[in-house]
Amino acid sequence: MKISEVQSEILRLKKEKEICILAHSYQAREIVEVADFTGDSYQLSVMASKASEKTILMCGVRFMAETVKILSPEKTVFLVNPAAGCPMAEQMDRPFINDIKTRFPDHTVVAYINTTAELKTICDVCVTSSSAVKIVRRIENPNILFIPDCNLGAYVAKQVPEKNIKLLHGGCPIHAAVTVNEVRDAKTAHPDALVLVHPECVPKVVELADFTGSTSAIMEFAKMSEHREFIIGTEMSIAEHLQYLCPEKTFWCLSKKMICPNMKMTTLVDLLNSVRGRGGEEILLPEETITAAKVCIERMIELG
Ligand code: 13P
Ligand code: SF4
Asked: Which CATH superfamily is domain 3-84+266-285 in?
Protein backbone atom coordinates (compact mmCIF):
# COMPACT_ATOMS: atom_id res chain seq x y z
CA MET A 1 0.00 0.00 0.00
CA LYS A 2 1.19 3.56 -0.67
CA ILE A 3 1.42 6.04 2.23
CA SER A 4 -1.50 8.04 0.79
CA GLU A 5 -3.65 4.88 0.55
CA VAL A 6 -2.93 3.98 4.18
CA GLN A 7 -3.84 7.54 5.18
CA SER A 8 -7.14 7.41 3.23
CA GLU A 9 -8.08 4.12 4.87
CA ILE A 10 -7.29 5.55 8.33
CA LEU A 11 -9.44 8.63 7.62
CA ARG A 12 -12.31 6.47 6.30
CA LEU A 13 -12.32 4.11 9.29
CA LYS A 14 -11.81 6.92 11.79
CA LYS A 15 -14.93 8.66 10.48
CA GLU A 16 -17.00 5.45 10.29
CA LYS A 17 -16.07 4.38 13.83
CA GLU A 18 -16.09 7.90 15.37
CA ILE A 19 -12.51 7.76 16.56
CA CYS A 20 -10.43 10.75 17.61
CA ILE A 21 -6.71 10.59 16.79
CA LEU A 22 -4.35 12.66 18.93
CA ALA A 23 -0.68 13.06 17.97
CA HIS A 24 2.17 14.68 19.88
CA SER A 25 4.18 17.13 17.75
CA TYR A 26 7.16 14.73 17.80
CA GLN A 27 5.20 12.27 15.63
CA ALA A 28 6.08 11.72 11.99
CA ARG A 29 4.55 13.94 9.36
CA GLU A 30 2.40 11.18 7.80
CA ILE A 31 0.76 10.64 11.22
CA VAL A 32 0.31 14.35 11.94
CA GLU A 33 -1.49 14.66 8.58
CA VAL A 34 -4.30 12.28 9.62
CA ALA A 35 -4.57 13.33 13.28
CA ASP A 36 -7.58 15.30 14.54
CA PHE A 37 -5.27 17.27 16.76
CA THR A 38 -1.51 17.66 17.08
CA GLY A 39 0.16 19.62 19.86
CA ASP A 40 2.43 19.70 22.87
CA SER A 41 1.74 17.75 26.06
CA TYR A 42 -0.40 20.50 27.59
CA GLN A 43 -2.54 21.03 24.49
CA LEU A 44 -3.07 17.27 24.13
CA SER A 45 -4.33 16.92 27.69
CA VAL A 46 -6.77 19.81 27.22
CA MET A 47 -7.96 18.49 23.83
CA ALA A 48 -8.47 15.03 25.29
CA SER A 49 -10.94 16.34 27.84
CA LYS A 50 -12.85 18.23 25.10
CA ALA A 51 -13.08 15.52 22.40
CA SER A 52 -16.63 14.34 21.75
CA GLU A 53 -15.62 10.92 20.32
CA LYS A 54 -15.83 7.92 22.66
CA THR A 55 -12.65 6.29 21.37
CA ILE A 56 -9.30 8.06 21.45
CA LEU A 57 -6.10 6.82 19.85
CA MET A 58 -2.90 8.38 21.17
CA CYS A 59 0.12 8.59 18.88
CA GLY A 60 2.75 9.49 21.41
CA VAL A 61 4.10 7.85 24.56
CA ARG A 62 2.41 5.99 27.42
CA PHE A 63 2.08 8.82 29.96
CA MET A 64 0.18 10.85 27.34
CA ALA A 65 -2.38 8.06 26.82
CA GLU A 66 -2.65 7.65 30.60
CA THR A 67 -3.34 11.38 30.97
CA VAL A 68 -6.19 11.11 28.45
CA LYS A 69 -7.67 8.14 30.35
CA ILE A 70 -7.39 9.97 33.69
CA LEU A 71 -9.21 13.02 32.31
CA SER A 72 -11.82 10.99 30.41
CA PRO A 73 -12.25 7.65 32.21
CA GLU A 74 -15.53 7.00 30.39
CA LYS A 75 -13.70 6.93 27.05
CA THR A 76 -11.85 4.02 25.46
CA VAL A 77 -8.25 5.11 25.13
CA PHE A 78 -5.58 3.28 23.16
CA LEU A 79 -1.83 3.83 23.00
CA VAL A 80 -1.20 3.11 19.33
CA ASN A 81 2.22 1.53 19.89
CA PRO A 82 2.32 -0.10 23.36
CA ALA A 83 6.14 -0.15 23.38
CA ALA A 84 6.34 3.67 23.28
CA GLY A 85 7.26 4.74 26.81
CA CYS A 86 9.07 7.81 28.09
CA PRO A 87 12.26 6.94 29.99
CA MET A 88 11.95 10.15 32.02
CA ALA A 89 8.43 9.20 33.16
CA GLU A 90 9.77 5.92 34.50
CA GLN A 91 12.79 7.34 36.37
CA MET A 92 11.04 7.82 39.72
CA ASP A 93 8.47 5.65 41.45
CA ARG A 94 6.06 6.09 44.34
CA PRO A 95 8.20 4.63 47.17
CA PHE A 96 11.13 6.88 46.16
CA ILE A 97 9.04 10.06 46.06
CA ASN A 98 7.11 9.11 49.21
CA ASP A 99 10.43 8.82 51.00
CA ILE A 100 11.53 12.29 49.79
CA LYS A 101 8.15 13.72 50.78
CA THR A 102 8.66 12.57 54.36
CA ARG A 103 11.96 14.49 54.38
CA PHE A 104 10.40 17.66 52.93
CA PRO A 105 6.84 17.63 54.35
CA ASP A 106 6.35 21.38 53.91
CA HIS A 107 7.04 21.29 50.10
CA THR A 108 4.38 21.31 47.38
CA VAL A 109 5.16 18.44 44.99
CA VAL A 110 5.07 19.68 41.39
CA ALA A 111 5.21 16.87 38.84
CA TYR A 112 6.13 17.32 35.22
CA ILE A 113 3.38 15.64 33.20
CA ASN A 114 6.09 13.21 31.99
CA THR A 115 5.40 10.95 35.00
CA THR A 116 3.43 7.71 35.38
CA ALA A 117 -0.23 7.79 36.43
CA GLU A 118 0.79 5.98 39.60
CA LEU A 119 3.31 8.65 40.56
CA LYS A 120 0.80 11.43 39.86
CA THR A 121 -1.42 10.00 42.62
CA ILE A 122 0.97 11.34 45.29
CA CYS A 123 1.77 14.72 43.68
CA ASP A 124 0.05 18.04 44.32
CA VAL A 125 0.01 19.59 40.86
CA CYS A 126 1.17 18.72 37.35
CA VAL A 127 2.89 21.04 34.90
CA THR A 128 4.01 20.83 31.30
CA SER A 129 6.93 22.66 29.74
CA SER A 130 4.56 25.36 28.46
CA SER A 131 2.79 25.94 31.78
CA ALA A 132 5.47 25.21 34.43
CA VAL A 133 6.62 28.80 35.05
CA LYS A 134 3.09 30.21 35.23
CA ILE A 135 1.84 27.45 37.54
CA VAL A 136 4.82 27.49 39.94
CA ARG A 137 4.44 31.27 40.23
CA ARG A 138 0.78 30.82 41.17
CA ILE A 139 1.37 28.24 43.90
CA GLU A 140 1.08 29.90 47.31
CA ASN A 141 3.67 27.74 49.06
CA PRO A 142 7.22 29.15 48.62
CA ASN A 143 8.68 25.62 48.99
CA ILE A 144 8.47 23.45 45.89
CA LEU A 145 9.72 19.93 45.20
CA PHE A 146 9.95 19.74 41.39
CA ILE A 147 10.08 16.24 39.85
CA PRO A 148 11.50 14.53 37.81
CA ASP A 149 13.27 16.86 35.31
CA CYS A 150 16.06 18.87 36.97
CA ASN A 151 16.68 20.83 33.74
CA LEU A 152 13.11 22.04 33.35
CA GLY A 153 13.13 22.59 37.13
CA ALA A 154 16.29 24.73 36.90
CA TYR A 155 14.71 26.75 34.09
CA VAL A 156 11.60 27.35 36.24
CA ALA A 157 13.76 28.23 39.28
CA LYS A 158 15.53 30.90 37.23
CA GLN A 159 12.24 32.44 36.08
CA VAL A 160 10.66 32.24 39.54
CA PRO A 161 13.52 33.22 41.90
CA GLU A 162 11.13 34.01 44.75
CA LYS A 163 10.44 30.27 45.25
CA ASN A 164 12.65 27.77 47.02
CA ILE A 165 12.73 24.96 44.42
CA LYS A 166 14.22 21.58 45.31
CA LEU A 167 15.32 19.46 42.33
CA LEU A 168 16.11 15.76 41.89
CA HIS A 169 18.39 14.09 39.33
CA GLY A 170 15.92 13.22 36.59
CA GLY A 171 15.49 14.36 33.02
CA CYS A 172 15.04 13.58 29.34
CA PRO A 173 17.98 11.57 28.00
CA ILE A 174 17.47 13.03 24.53
CA HIS A 175 17.39 16.75 25.36
CA ALA A 176 19.93 16.48 28.21
CA ALA A 177 22.49 14.90 25.87
CA VAL A 178 22.97 18.09 23.86
CA THR A 179 26.21 19.88 24.72
CA VAL A 180 27.36 23.49 24.78
CA ASN A 181 29.94 22.63 22.10
CA GLU A 182 27.19 21.42 19.79
CA VAL A 183 25.40 24.76 20.19
CA ARG A 184 28.64 26.62 19.45
CA ASP A 185 29.35 24.43 16.40
CA ALA A 186 25.81 24.92 15.08
CA LYS A 187 26.11 28.71 15.55
CA THR A 188 29.44 28.72 13.71
CA ALA A 189 27.95 26.69 10.86
CA HIS A 190 24.82 28.89 10.67
CA PRO A 191 25.78 32.34 12.01
CA ASP A 192 22.54 34.01 10.89
CA ALA A 193 20.27 31.48 12.62
CA LEU A 194 18.45 31.96 15.92
CA VAL A 195 18.79 29.11 18.41
CA LEU A 196 15.46 27.85 19.81
CA VAL A 197 15.63 25.20 22.53
CA HIS A 198 13.35 23.16 24.77
CA PRO A 199 13.76 23.69 28.57
CA GLU A 200 14.53 19.96 28.96
CA CYS A 201 18.05 20.86 27.70
CA VAL A 202 20.77 21.47 30.32
CA PRO A 203 20.94 25.04 31.75
CA LYS A 204 24.24 25.85 29.97
CA VAL A 205 22.61 25.06 26.61
CA VAL A 206 19.50 27.07 27.53
CA GLU A 207 21.75 30.04 28.42
CA LEU A 208 23.10 30.12 24.86
CA ALA A 209 19.67 30.04 23.24
CA ASP A 210 17.80 33.01 21.75
CA PHE A 211 14.46 31.48 22.77
CA THR A 212 13.39 28.69 25.16
CA GLY A 213 9.95 27.10 25.07
CA SER A 214 7.77 24.01 24.71
CA THR A 215 7.48 22.29 21.34
CA SER A 216 4.44 24.42 20.43
CA ALA A 217 6.07 27.61 21.70
CA ILE A 218 9.16 26.92 19.57
CA MET A 219 6.95 26.34 16.51
CA GLU A 220 4.92 29.46 17.16
CA PHE A 221 8.06 31.57 17.67
CA ALA A 222 9.63 30.34 14.42
CA LYS A 223 6.41 30.89 12.44
CA MET A 224 5.91 34.45 13.73
CA SER A 225 9.56 35.56 13.66
CA GLU A 226 10.89 37.79 10.92
CA HIS A 227 14.13 35.82 11.02
CA ARG A 228 14.78 33.44 8.12
CA GLU A 229 16.99 30.79 9.73
CA PHE A 230 16.67 28.76 12.92
CA ILE A 231 18.61 26.07 14.81
CA ILE A 232 16.03 23.86 16.51
CA GLY A 233 17.02 22.38 19.88
CA THR A 234 14.32 19.81 20.43
CA GLU A 235 13.32 16.48 18.88
CA MET A 236 14.29 16.64 15.21
CA SER A 237 10.70 16.20 13.93
CA ILE A 238 10.01 19.82 14.94
CA ALA A 239 12.61 21.12 12.48
CA GLU A 240 11.01 18.95 9.79
CA HIS A 241 7.43 20.07 10.56
CA LEU A 242 8.56 23.70 10.55
CA GLN A 243 10.30 23.25 7.21
CA TYR A 244 6.97 22.13 5.69
CA LEU A 245 5.01 24.89 7.43
CA CYS A 246 7.44 27.69 6.47
CA PRO A 247 9.13 26.67 3.20
CA GLU A 248 10.58 30.17 2.78
CA LYS A 249 12.61 29.77 6.01
CA THR A 250 15.45 27.36 6.83
CA PHE A 251 15.55 25.06 9.87
CA TRP A 252 18.61 23.19 11.15
CA CYS A 253 18.51 20.48 13.78
CA LEU A 254 20.79 21.42 16.70
CA SER A 255 22.17 17.90 17.18
CA LYS A 256 21.84 14.51 15.52
CA LYS A 257 21.31 13.09 19.03
CA MET A 258 17.90 14.76 19.19
CA ILE A 259 15.83 11.84 18.02
CA CYS A 260 13.52 10.19 20.53
CA PRO A 261 13.32 6.46 19.74
CA ASN A 262 10.13 6.15 21.77
CA MET A 263 8.34 8.88 19.89
CA LYS A 264 9.49 7.26 16.65
CA MET A 265 8.09 3.82 17.63
CA THR A 266 4.63 4.65 16.30
CA THR A 267 4.25 4.12 12.57
CA LEU A 268 1.42 4.93 10.20
CA VAL A 269 0.76 1.19 9.86
CA ASP A 270 0.47 0.89 13.67
CA LEU A 271 -2.18 3.58 13.46
CA LEU A 272 -3.98 1.74 10.64
CA ASN A 273 -3.99 -1.46 12.70
CA SER A 274 -5.36 0.45 15.68
CA VAL A 275 -8.25 2.03 13.74
CA ARG A 276 -8.97 -1.44 12.32
CA GLY A 277 -9.31 -2.67 15.91
CA ARG A 278 -6.35 -5.04 15.85
CA GLY A 279 -3.51 -3.03 17.30
CA GLY A 280 -2.54 -0.75 20.13
CA GLU A 281 -3.11 -1.29 23.83
CA GLU A 282 -6.20 -0.19 25.67
CA ILE A 283 -5.19 1.90 28.69
CA LEU A 284 -6.84 0.48 31.79
CA LEU A 285 -6.16 2.10 35.14
CA PRO A 286 -7.54 1.23 38.60
CA GLU A 287 -10.37 3.56 39.62
CA GLU A 288 -8.45 4.75 42.68
CA THR A 289 -5.44 5.67 40.50
CA ILE A 290 -7.67 7.69 38.18
CA THR A 291 -9.36 9.49 41.06
CA ALA A 292 -6.11 10.39 42.82
CA ALA A 293 -4.10 11.27 39.69
CA LYS A 294 -6.93 13.42 38.31
CA VAL A 295 -6.59 15.93 41.14
CA CYS A 296 -3.13 17.14 40.10
CA ILE A 297 -3.91 17.18 36.35
CA GLU A 298 -7.12 19.15 36.88
CA ARG A 299 -5.19 21.55 39.11
CA MET A 300 -2.75 22.05 36.25
CA ILE A 301 -5.58 22.91 33.83
CA GLU A 302 -7.13 25.24 36.43
CA LEU A 303 -3.86 27.10 37.15
CA GLY A 304 -2.54 27.03 33.59
P1 13P B 1 6.16 19.32 25.34
O2 13P B 1 5.26 18.67 24.38
O3 13P B 1 5.43 19.70 26.57
O4 13P B 1 6.96 20.43 24.77
O5 13P B 1 7.20 18.19 25.85
C6 13P B 1 8.15 17.65 25.09
C7 13P B 1 8.37 16.23 25.39
O8 13P B 1 9.47 15.79 25.57
C9 13P B 1 7.24 15.35 25.42
O10 13P B 1 7.64 14.09 25.73
FE1 SF4 C 1 10.49 11.27 27.03
FE2 SF4 C 1 12.41 12.89 26.16
FE3 SF4 C 1 11.25 11.22 24.45
FE4 SF4 C 1 9.90 13.32 25.41
S5 SF4 C 1 11.70 13.37 24.10
S6 SF4 C 1 9.16 11.22 25.23
S7 SF4 C 1 10.73 13.45 27.48
S8 SF4 C 1 12.47 10.66 26.23
From this structure: NadA-like (3.40.50.10800)
